[in-house]
Design goal:
alpha+beta, 4-stranded antiparallel sheet, 15 strands, 14% strand, elongated
């Protein structure tokens, strides 16, 4: 069944034959099998070692390393770390031990004399490992919490905080939003939904990016440390450095130069200088040992039996997965391959495929066959149209050539009557070519419209005046009746051509003593233009083909009396280009009514 808009709705597929349902069922079967196998293995082999291998305690260990690195970044030595170690040990139920790089014990949560775990877990060195930027990860670089001389004094921190609070209030005043965040150095920055302070230039305050005295002193010292290895004449270090960004909370470090590209040599120089500057302010590197608080080193018993279970279950799941996937894939690929083979056939063969299923692939095959049928029909129509075009062009060209050859041979003098006849044939040829050009532009989507507000009564009056002499010659009354104040947004030239074609068609089929009436009415938000005649009308079986190219109700009618067969096709093309519709209604013996519906617009003031 086809909808009124000409689109055939998608067919309903039984749920048990739906491709989506089958794929879902296959996925559910594989998922159930996998989950069941995993659960069985977990029940059989779960131990504390499995939990450790699966990362159950990795989060706690990462938090321990993060806390200890933060302590080291903020203290020049490890004095006082013992209380922190014992607190973390009790909270996380882990044994924690710290030793110097030489092996001397710094702090241990276990009893004195307890042997250290066999392997070290990590090295605590805030000058070379960043555990702050990405929680749970260990990044190469300087920990942002190692601020050293860049730490603001209490007065400086309060000053920067007040400026940040004022900026947040400014953002709220202008309809934005923001919040403050304190960086490890004590500097307060403003964070907005779009990132740090982006897009709020009206709330900018240079004081919130100003370098504080303590920061300026540290930067000067840093520049001096870099002078020995930095190539080039730089008064300040480069501004693009993630570690320094963390100090100030901005992508542009205040007081830095405008260089935005840091090469490897410069970055290495900067890192070396910063480590040298921060070294007196951070604790020396230490080795971290982590383990069970009770020192019970449970292991994962990978006995031959357990290995056989894991291998066997994994192999079974893999085999079933491959079998199910292959079965479904074969059933899906077979009709698709048939479609591919059919699509690769020469176009003139109009190949079709067999519809073997009633699921999505079956309906796809049916749609492919329908498309092939339509293509075959269009090919037949194209051939017929080419034949019609050749016929329409051949007739005037043959007449022109014949008369010219007779005149050239001296058999006929080129009198005014002959010249007028040749001129008429040339005009007819020009009309056909112009019509074909308009249709081609519409098909290619290159038809240009110059829209403007157009009064419907003026439009109908112009069309009626242009065809009144022809109507009078055929003893046909031609009138126009339009609602006042009705305006449409249209191309005046194209709309006159549309109504002119409809009037010409009506005059051609209306006998002497008949009437042709142009009308314009407004319904809701549409302008309805009509051309009504009292001619012989159109047979019901011919109505669907009225707007087809080169179609004539009477095949025997000549070109002179029946037109070229392109006028109504041009009408439909132009009306649809305006976003409207055109239709025809007729009763044999009572004439025909052509209706054009276009969006109406308010008239100009």
């Amino acid at each position: 069944m086809t909808r009124p808009d000409g689109v055939t709705p998608a067919p309903r597929i039984p749920w048990h034959k739906s491709l989506l349902v089958r794929l879902l069922l296959t996925s559910v079967a594989i998922a159930v099998l996998s989950v069941g196998a995993t659960a069985w293995l977990a029940v059989q082999l779960t131990t504390r070692a499995i939990q450790e291998e699966r990362g159950q305690v990795l989060s706690d260990d990462s938090d321990i390393l993060r806390r200890l690195s933060g302590y080291a970044a903020a203290h020049p030595d490890w004095d006082g770390i013992a209380s922190t170690v014992h607190t973390l040990s009790r909270t996380l139920d882990r044994r924690i031990a710290l030793t110097t790089s030489g092996g001397r014990l710094i702090a241990d949560s276990a009893a004195a004399g307890t042997a250290l775990p066999a392997r070290a877990s990590a090295t605590v060195d805030p000058l070379r490992t960043d555990t702050y930027t990405e929680p749970g990860a260990q990044l190469a670089g300087i920990d942002p919490r190692a601020v050293g001389p860049f730490r603001l004094s209490r007065a400086e921190a309060e000053q920067v905080s007040r400026v940040a609070q004022r900026r947040v209030k400014c953002l709220v005043t202008f309809g934005g939003s923001g919040r403050t965040s304190r960086m490890p150095s004590g500097r307060t920055v403003v964070i907005t939904d779009d990132g740090p302070e982006s897009g709020f230039s009206r709330c900018a305050d240079e004081t919130d990016k100003a370098v504080m005295p303590s920061e300026r002193t540290a930067l000067v010292a840093l520049r001096k440390l870099m002078s020995g290895c930095l190539q080039g004449d730089f008064e300040q270090p480069p501004r693009v450095d993630p570690a320094l960004q963390a100090l100030f909370g901005d992508d542009v470090v205040p007081g830095m130069s405008d260089r935005t590209v840091v090469d490897e040599q410069t970055q290495n120089c900067l890192d070396t200088a910063r480590r040298t500057q921060l070294d007196p302010y951070v604790a020396p590197p230490a080795t971290l040992y982590l383990g069970d608080r009770e020192q019970q080193r449970s292991g994962f018993d990978l006995s031959p039996a357990n290995k056989a279970k894991i291998v066997g279950v994994s192999g079974l799941v893999l085999a079933v997965t491959i079998a199910l996937t292959a079965l479904v894939a074969v059933r899906l690929v077979r009709p698709l391959r048939a479609l591919t083979v059919a699509a690769r056939q020469p176009p003139e063969q109009h190949a079709r495929v067999a519809v073997t299923t009633k699921d999505e692939t079956g309906f796809l095959a049916a749609a492919f066959n329908d498309l092939t049928a339509r293509r075959e029909q269009l090919e037949a129509q194209r051939k017929a149209m080419v034949s019609d075009i050749a016929h329409e062009l051949r007739t005037p060209l043959t007449n022109i050539r014949g008369w010219l050859e007779v005149t050239r041979d001296g058999l006929l003098d080129p009198d005014p009557g002959l010249i007028a006849s040749l001129h008429d044939e040339a005009l007819q040829l020009q009309y056909i070519i112009d019509d074909l050009r308009d249709l081609s532009a519409g098909d290619a989507g290159t038809l240009r419209l110059h829209r403007e507000p157009l009064a419907a009564d003026e439009l109908l009056g112009q069309v009626a005046a242009a065809h009144r002499s022809r109507a009078e010659a055929g003893a046909v009354y031609l009138g126009a009746d339009a609602d006042p104040g009705l305006w449409i947004d249209a191309d005046p030239v194209r709309m006159r051509q549309v109504l002119g074609n409809l009037v010409s068609n009506a005059l051609r089929h209306t006998p002497a003593g008949g009437t042709v009436t142009l009308g314009a009415r407004q319904t809701a938000d549409e302008a309805v233009l009509t051309v009504r005649d009292t001619g012989a009308g159109i047979a019901p079986e011919d109505l669907p083909q009225v707007f087809e190219r080169f179609w004539r109700a009477e095949k025997s009618r000549s070109r002179r009396t029946g037109g070229s067969g392109l006028g109504l096709s041009i009408v439909r093309q132009f009306v649809e280009a305006h976003g409207g519709t055109v239709s025809v209604a007729s009763t044999p013996g009572s004439g025909a009514v052509f209706t054009v519906r276009l969006p109406c617009v308010p008239g100009p003031d």
